Structure of Calcium permeable stress-gated cation channel 1:
Amino acid sequence: MATLGDIGLAAAINLITALIFLIAFAILRLQPFNDRVYFPKWYLKGLRSSPATSGAFVGKFVNLDYRSYLRFLNWMPDALKMPEPELIDHAGLDSAVYLRIYLLGLKIFIPILFATWAILVPVNWTNDWLEQSKATYSDIDKLSISNIPQSSHRFYAHVVMAYAVTFWTCFALKKEYETVTKMRLHFLQSEKRRPDQFTVLVKNVPPDADESVSEAVEHFFLVNHPDHYLTHQVVLNANKLSELVEEKKSKQNWLVYYQNKYERKQSKRPMMKTGFLGLCGEKVDAIDHHIAEIKRLSDDIAEEKENVKNSPKAIMPAAFVSFKTRWGAAVCAQTQQARNPTLWLTEWAPEPRDVYWQNLAIPYVSLTVRRLLMAVAFFFLTFFFIIPVAFVQSLANIEGLEKNASFLKPIIEIKPIKAFIQGFLPGIALKIFLILLPTILMIMSKFEGFLSISNLERRSASRYYLFNFFNVFLASVVTGTVLEQLHTFLKKSVNDIPSTIGVAIPMKATFFITYIMVDGWSGTAGEILRLKPLIIYHLKNFFLVKTEKDREEAMDAGSIGFNTGEPQIQLYFLIGLIYAVVTPLLTPFILVFFAFAYVVYRHQIINVYNQEYESSAAFWPDVHGRIVGALIISQLLLMGLLGTKGSASATPLLLALPILTLGFHKYCKGRFEPAFIRYPLQEAMMKDTLERAREPNLNLKGYLENAYLPPIFKEAESDSDDDDDDGEISDKKWAKDNVLVATKRQSRKSTPVPSKISNGSSPNLLEIQEKDKP
Amino acid sequence: MATLGDIGLAAAINLITALIFLIAFAILRLQPFNDRVYFPKWYLKGLRSSPATSGAFVGKFVNLDYRSYLRFLNWMPDALKMPEPELIDHAGLDSAVYLRIYLLGLKIFIPILFATWAILVPVNWTNDWLEQSKATYSDIDKLSISNIPQSSHRFYAHVVMAYAVTFWTCFALKKEYETVTKMRLHFLQSEKRRPDQFTVLVKNVPPDADESVSEAVEHFFLVNHPDHYLTHQVVLNANKLSELVEEKKSKQNWLVYYQNKYERKQSKRPMMKTGFLGLCGEKVDAIDHHIAEIKRLSDDIAEEKENVKNSPKAIMPAAFVSFKTRWGAAVCAQTQQARNPTLWLTEWAPEPRDVYWQNLAIPYVSLTVRRLLMAVAFFFLTFFFIIPVAFVQSLANIEGLEKNASFLKPIIEIKPIKAFIQGFLPGIALKIFLILLPTILMIMSKFEGFLSISNLERRSASRYYLFNFFNVFLASVVTGTVLEQLHTFLKKSVNDIPSTIGVAIPMKATFFITYIMVDGWSGTAGEILRLKPLIIYHLKNFFLVKTEKDREEAMDAGSIGFNTGEPQIQLYFLIGLIYAVVTPLLTPFILVFFAFAYVVYRHQIINVYNQEYESSAAFWPDVHGRIVGALIISQLLLMGLLGTKGSASATPLLLALPILTLGFHKYCKGRFEPAFIRYPLQEAMMKDTLERAREPNLNLKGYLENAYLPPIFKEAESDSDDDDDDGEISDKKWAKDNVLVATKRQSRKSTPVPSKISNGSSPNLLEIQEKDKP
């Protein structure tokens, strides 16, 4: 049992770690040669170009202005300065609402902190139950519910506090849901014209012997939406083309690498082997070889493009159908079209950036099977992942290694290597698995057939949360692997599960406090340092970058990463709500996390992340639902805990709480969720009418015609030199439409805005905002 | 433990009971004076009038044709003769599809019977486990799974059979869902023009300071559905009017009663007391008193009608909005209208007959609270209903009665009365509760705020099924009240629940066989006798009937009673599926029930029941879902049972079954359910186009204008004599519209179709069908 002193020490260590990270960040970010790592967002928005102000050569790479180092924490107030409406304008609604999750954490836990410390800490402290019991205990336990004697009347204080916590949390949740809903509707309302407002994605177009998919779509919608149908675009299977373009890109990178190498050392032309990984095969001149390869691929790409455009096999039974009005699209997206509900399925088209093109052609039956398979797979992944990991570990121990690969024996027997392997190997399989987990979950979601990246991320997030709940939270509370727990719980009574876990809860408080400090505090500080992108950028910069455009591409802005970030926050909500009443001492640690993470992520969103898509905060129902879930779990565990404390009269009083919370959830679901799924006709009609009044002669058809062309066509286009103007789809047009579709970011790339580095702070936001306004 | 002989005896007893019922029915139905009890459907359709053929006075009441008695079972083939399309035409799709539930039972269980008797019975019989164990056992147990030794390999036969049962059931379910979906779509497609095809119910119209509800509705829909909106009708709160009309009707009945009495015995004017229940108060001339009362009520009704029409308080924030096309209505019903998803809620208007008028004005928040309250109430009703019942029972014992009502003591002490009370009282509270249960559940559904009668019945049915599952099925298997079980199960492990129940399953086979015979066989035979309507009709006929119209009203055709009938069938599905593999002997009893009930209910639907509304088989997803649920329960219980039989390797093989079944359910939900909830635009467009081609000059507005007037207005109208033509809503019009809205039944009332009683069978159906065709 840790004492308050131990925790203080741990806190100090973690604070120092975090501080070191922050100082490292402060120093690194001030160096001009790191500018593209720490301010990529501004480069992408075209508001900042490569630093060339200082004049001196050294000044290009190292910041020599000592004053800027003194104000190394200045980024914090800077990050908080930008007002929310400007943040939405700058980074999109998704990012702005994502930050509100941290704010919600603060809103929920600050009042809880005051209430519990004012009431529960004295109630817990003024007992001598632990002293009497003569068990080993620490000061923390004296502050927790453990210090209350069996069947004491003081438990009523905890019951009342549980009610207070529930009501306050629900109140805060409702307020927040309301705000986010308003923000979303306002965002959708004030938005500029976007292709997805007029477009519906139609899947499962039935095959027709007499008509092509394109004709079938046109006829169907001309008949069934005669007044509203405008145009459509069939979905093309461009997966092979996409592979070829990828390959060409990689070859081009290598070409640049070898050319750079040759430039630096003109004496010798670089050579390479053509075989596997460059380890075997014929030796050829690397530059010539790559030029030839690129030529070959360019031809292949041109051919494949022709192929995709003309072959009926490449046309998938899906189409993006555009309407004359938003009203028409809203109607089509929300209604059933055909008699057979598995044909002519319609849904809102995601933003063009957000479409996950590969999944557009999965038939209905296959979808059901895929979902079922993935549900089963996820169950096994959650509860049995430890089996293959343990198997790999058993292979990877010293004895196993010596036995299976006896030729390695002489090397392994060397002492320092042996020690290293013994210390390192057993853990590595698990570590690798945990690092790969988000990717595995993402692949599972992709396999399930979701059609937009935002949807994929939401699905992965909910699975990642469940995994964490069982394998991080439960596995920490009830020590032992989840598999063992599953076994135990199946043998236990339904009634006993909450009390088994509930009893273990107060004992694990110190563990979770440490967890919050390591994962929450130091982890968040590590996030701001961006060590991985930093290294990768400099490697690329050294080997591949020749032109300013290459440097642009070497920059990896990254994104929020909803699928890993949100489940982590949710874990803190869960821990915070569970311990709010049980061990009030834990709440401040949670609060520090929320406050610190809020500042850090606000900074990152303003300066670093470049959100790939805009889902208009479509994830909020998930966030809300998981917090409500955490609330209910906390109530059940408290019931279980009080049940074992012999407080027979206090426990039934808690019974109403989960029921009320469920009722609250149902209410919110009905009241707010539709705003995240549907698009009200009133809204659509209003925008239509306004637009018609403002631009009566708008050529909508031209605007929408090629909005939903797979991006790979555009990419293939910009890379290839041999244009074919005779194709049905004019390539010139794509490029033009691309400008219309994309946000204004690219078009401003060359605006000369002075770098603000010499200020030793992030760019002057208000000034830029001023310029950014239309 | 019952032997085969015991069961044979029980079967004989029940068969004889059923036979007695059938003979009584055969005799009673042939008597002309019972004609309106046993053939009300034909009277309501106007295809049969009161018997007046025989001429002789006696012949009017008693059938003297002895030959007709010989063919007393002729109704059975007659009932089966009518082909399904004509049945749909005659009684509606709801009734026809309801009968298919019984057919589905036959389809599922006949192949199961053959398979299990061919394979499992020999496998079970050729063991001597029960003989070896020397426990008491019966022949039935020798045929069941109990006779297989522990950890025998023979259990694989049961596992294979469980797979076969699952696949067959799923296959039959899918086929049936497909058929019913087709029938529904065909029915909707081939239907005549009906107001509900064009109409959407709009709820939660927001209050507006400047506009009345009617104006607000008109403006909103003119703006947001400019091309499709036609007209609307606000919902009026006519609950008080309805009460007055009810009261008037009752007084009129009494008036007729006293007039009849006076006519029979002219010597003395009937007198009555005005006080409570006619027991106290002033003595007055009954006829004069009632005439005065009716006059007063007529005035009140006229006044209240004025009130409802003109007072803004009587106007509810809801309206029936009609559109120019089915397409427009389909669009409006399936989309969200306003920003705030709790305002301007739209849904398909139910058929005018199906509307439950009282619930039309419940606001959104109140609905959430009501649902939550009812969920909690239903939980307590299911698990704790025994507490108040036991309390009433404890009050109602002799000692309690003597103590609480000591003035009754002298009476109670009389021996025969005491014996009667002692034998009768303890059970009576429970009996009354069980009789009242469907009514209680119906009141709960009404409180929840459902808007159509069909919806109310579906909700009640699902609750009734749950109640039966816990209190009839589980309580019979695991002896003891559900409350005790709940306690036991909460203390048990999750894993143990299926095995606890599973082990008890084979032992309860004889109990359920008896249950099927008593409840299923004799109960169904009792249904055809219609004892209650018979008695009530003759009482009314004697006291109240003066004119032919009165007789018409005295007739109580009744309806299928989906809310009580369907849960009962589902219980048989559950028992049948559970015992299919465990005790194959039970299956034939289930089959006899399904076959017999099919014939009986087919007869009743053709000759008796008068369905109040037509939901176009909207209940099928519920039926399907509950059978799938029963299948999963049967799989879990078999797993539990095999688990205790030491067949460790056979049990995991079953694990895939519930998962596959769930997958099947999901598939069906996606594939078929939308046809029961939405109306495809393709369909709507097709009907619109056809109609426009056929009747280009149709005055749709006139047709729809008053279709959704509360029925009470029409009733109040037809009863009152003092018309007011200055009202906004022309009363004449209602009457006219009424003809259009209602089915053709009333209009044909006077068609002279000869009674077919002298044939000693139900009317010649084909002949009547011929005439019934347009």
